[in-house]
Amino acid sequence: MNVFAICGSLRKESFNLKTLHAAVELAPKDMRFDIYDKLADIPPYNEDVKEKGFPPVVQDLRGRIGKADALLFVTPEYNYSIPGVLKNAIDWASRPPDQPFNGKPAAIMGASTSMLGTARAQYHLRQAFVFLNILPVNRPEVMIAFAQQKFDDAGKLTDENSRKFIGQLLINLESWTKKIV
Ligand code: FNR
């Protein structure tokens, strides 16, 4: 199973990127990840540019989403919502023709330094999924609060509960994907 994974933070020491790495470590053995690392290269969405054709970086993003069996979003929360860079990438990728998100199974995870662990950003993402027809796994919700206390100096997620939830969410993503694709 090929999972396209995208992190909503551009920060080198991002807790969300570290969470994504924990997901790779904790995933079922047949799950392979295509980790997206070009988020910073995507230009701000502009319909005038789109009308001349998708920029190559967006074409690549759309192709990788289209090829994937399932999607994994690992995102911070910015001002109670989805970080602009992630939303911008989703907006570009979502434009017709052949909307690549359509019907894809997905899972969401997030880590934040405050006490709700990206809950609000995750629900905003789920709201966008309705229009995109992305089909998310509902549970468990992986919302890592007080992230600054949950990783060691090497960047490894050390919190046992978070590790357990991540592992379970990916097992659920695998069985959900098999059920609906
Ligand atoms: C934040 N942060 C934050 N945290 C939160 O729980 N709710 C929020 O609404 C916000 N808002 C917010 C806005 C902006 C612009 C920044 C830069 C940060 C704090 C955030 O959780 C923290 O910076 C995380 O460490 C960001 O994730 P990464 O970069 O570590 O993955």
* Tally of helical segments: 6
Please write the string of helix (H) and strand (E) elements. Answer: EHEHHEHEHEEH
- Computed structural class: alpha/beta
Strand element count: 6
Oligomer: single chain
Dominant shape: globular
Q: Helix share of residues? A: 40-55%
Cα radius of gyration in angstroms:
16 Å
Question: For the residues shown, what is the average pLDDT?
Answer: 98
Q: How far is the N terminus from the C terminus?
A: 11 Å
Main beta sheet strand tally, sense and closure? 6 strands, parallel
Beta percentage is 5-15%
Low-confidence stretches: none
Q: What small molecules accompany the polymer chains?
A: ligand FNR
How would you describe this structure to a colleague?
It is a single chain. With 181 residues, the protein is of the alpha/beta class. The chain is 41% helix and 15% strand. The chain has helices at 15-26, 47-51, 56-67, 84-93, 119-132, 160-180, and strands at residues 2-7, 32-35, 70-74, 105-111, 135-136, 142-144. Strands 1, 2, 3, 4, 5 and 6 form a six-stranded parallel β-sheet that branches. α1 links the parallel β1 (2-7) and β2. The longest helix is centred in the C-terminal third of the chain and has 21 residues, at 160-180. The protein is globular and about 50 Å long. The termini are close together. Ligand FNR binds at residues 9, 11, 14-16, 76-80, 112-114, 116.
Topology readout:
Elements: E1 2-7, H1 15-26, E2 32-35, H2 47-51, H3 56-67, E3 70-74, H4 84-93, E4 105-111, H5 119-132, E5 135-136, E6 142-144, H6 160-180
Parallel strand pairs: 1-2, 1-3, 3-4, 4-5, 4-6
Bound molecules: ligand FNR.
